[in-house]
Amino acid sequence: MEIIEQVKEKFKSKIKSVFFHNEKRVYLEIDKEDLIDVVKFIFHDLDARFITASGIDNLKDMEILYHFSLDSDGIVISLRVFIDRDNPCIESITSIVKGALNIEREMYELLGIKFLNHPGLKRFLTDEFPEGFYPLRKDSPGRAEQ
Hints:
Structural class: alpha/beta
Helix content: 10-25%
Number of helices: 3
CATH architecture of the domain at 2-85: 2-Layer Sandwich
CATH topology of the domain at 2-85: Beta Polymerase, domain 2
Number of strands: 7
Low-confidence stretches: none
Order of helices and strands: HEEHEEEEHE
CATH class of the domain at 2-85: Alpha Beta
Strand order of the largest sheet: 1-2-5-4-3
Shape: globular
Distance between the termini: 37 Å
């Protein structure tokens, strides 16, 4: 896939792994320190559209998937970033992608992930959950066993 080769060539060793789900869907694992540079390239230089981001509690760490669509090619690139579960902090991408504002707030409220330099990082449901309770964390009290 030519577009993925461009990303790999631009970032070389910063791309930790590449997983092709199929010919139209690819996952690129990167370190959180490289997130802003890679998002800038994908969003601006490749003219990708931001779809959404997903936060996952893996118990040993937190995972964030940033999903971008290259509409003209029909390709979806997902950037996969792992962060420390005990100190879940990562730079906000809102300075590049304004559309990430609310999804980052949602991950903050539901998983406790802090997005550094987010312009309005606050909870949506301030009265709903007690401070320090994150309902999508797998070890949250009262969460059904899965």
